[in-house]
């Protein structure tokens, strides 16, 4: 049994729910969902379907399943970003229909961001929308992708090009499941926590600086602190700006060039967080030139990003990277928005970053 979890609310115009963060939370999730559904799992009036991959289900499936009054039905998907496709959503929908899923059925996304995004989209579209719960199992999914209601799948033409806003009924982040996560995945996910600290929470930034060793070795208490603080940042930002018309854009720090690096390397060389780490360093370069950060602050941020590295090298032509930034789907009518840190713990979205500035920043990658 875990100590009582930290609860962080998300309140947007279209949904209110909470994120529970704790160690050893998995066995409690079934009864917590049942309580949210007024005991209708126990009574058999509502059914749960869990989407997960064999890797995760083999390690953690039994622990999750023990808490359910009626066994949830497993819908299995192989792991990997290339399965985040409409074809998989179609297959899962067919399986649900055959198993008798109805409008009251509840989906549970039990995995990393790939499973979370795809399950959310399946929930948004199955019978025009059913409820779902996020049980994120990667650090990235716990601090970022499970919160905020963005769901979707990839097309050959680009990532996340088909999707919907559909918030979960609840999010349960169990720190214990991170114990089986490969270190490279943990480190890459922690770059999103560094991002959260830089854009909005100087004390999270300090904590990441002071406790790097503990955090990187998977110390549960330290990780719980970092996950909770990062979730708070995402929850506050999303609550203030659900549809990304303003404030939510600051979550894209490091992502303009990060996405370009991922695309240029065909999503094969770097994990998302690793590409974002490079993107944040580039943003720091521009921020320093524009004096939104001091040299000391830039040095601290760059050091922290590298501490949670190593930053994997990659090969991409800087001019090609800049060209790719104009294709970012976050751009509106040709305006490229770019996030700059303002000191440590604050950020601003600007629209006037020139191609020359971007090119100079991208050229630092090969230095
Ligand atoms: N919706 C959003 O707001 C949002 C935000 C950021 C990222 N995303 C999406 O998230 C996806 C990336 O998510 P990710 O980084 O979690 O990758 P992922 O889902 O591919 O998981 C990474 C790997 O870790 C394995 N894994 C997961 N949990 C594990 C555990 N506890 N133990 C052992 N292995 C485990 C998975 O099987 C997979 O191989 C991308 O598709 C991205 O587009 C969405
Ligand atoms: Zn990201």
Can you give me a brief rundown of this structure?
By secondary structure, the protein is of the alpha/beta class.
Description:
The protein has 367 residues and is α/β, with parallel strands linked by helices. The protein folds into two domains: 175 residues, Rossmann fold (3-Layer(aba) Sandwich); 184 residues, Dehydroquinate synthase-like, alpha domain. It has 14 helices and eleven strands. The strands form three sheets. A seven-stranded mixed sheet has the order 1-2-9-6-5-3-4, with helices on both faces. A hairpin with a 5-residue loop joins strand 10 and strand 11. Helix 5 packs parallel to helix 6, helix 11 packs antiparallel against helix 12 and helix 11 packs across helix 14. The site of zinc ion has 5 residues, from helix 11.
């Amino acid at each position: 049994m875990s100590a009582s979890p930290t609860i962080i609310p998300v309140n947007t115009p279209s949904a209110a729910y909470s994120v529970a963060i704790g160690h050893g939370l998995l066995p409690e999730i079934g009864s917590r969902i049942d309580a949210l559904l007024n005991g209708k799992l126990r009574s058999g009036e509502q059914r749960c379907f869990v989407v997960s991959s064999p890797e995760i289900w083999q390690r953690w499936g039994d622990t999750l399943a023990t808490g359910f009054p009626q066994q949830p039905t497993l819908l299995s998907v192989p792991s990997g970003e290339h399965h985040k496709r409409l074809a998989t959503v179609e297959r899962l929908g067919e399986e649900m229909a055959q198993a008798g899923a109805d409008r009251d059925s509840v989906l549970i996304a039990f995995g990393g961001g790939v499973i979370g995004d795809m399950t959310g989209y399946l929930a948004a579209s199955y019978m025009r929308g059913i409820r779902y719960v996020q049980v994120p199992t990667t650090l990235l999914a716990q601090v970022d992708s499970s919160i905020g209601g963005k769901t979707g799948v990839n097309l050959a033409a680009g990532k996340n090009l088909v999707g919907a806003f559909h918030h979960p009924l609840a999010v349960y982040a169990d720190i214990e499941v991170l114990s089986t996560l490969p270190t490279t995945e943990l480190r890459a996910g922690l770059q999103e926590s560094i991002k959260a600290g830089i854009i909005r929470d100087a004390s999270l930034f300090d904590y990441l600086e002071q406790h790097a060793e503990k955090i990187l070795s998977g110390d549960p208490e330290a990780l719980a602190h970092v996950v909770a603080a990062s979730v708070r940042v995402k929850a506050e930002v999303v609550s203030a700006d659900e549809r990304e018309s303003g404030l939510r854009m600051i979550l894209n720090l490091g992502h303009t060039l990060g996405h370009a690096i991922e695309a240029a390397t065909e999503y094969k060389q770097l994990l998302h967080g690793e590409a974002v780490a490079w993107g944040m360093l580039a943003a720091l370069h521009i921020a320093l030139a524009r004096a939104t950060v001091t040299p000391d602050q830039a040095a601290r941020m760059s050091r922290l990003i590298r501490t949670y590295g190593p930053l994997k090298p990659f090969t991409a032509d800087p001019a090609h990277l800049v060209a790719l930034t104009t294709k970012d789907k976050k751009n509106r009518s040709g305006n490229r928005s770019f996030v700059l840190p303002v000191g440590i713990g604050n950020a601003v979205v600007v629209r006037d970053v020139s191609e020359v500035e971007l090119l100079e920043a991208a050229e630092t990658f090969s230095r």
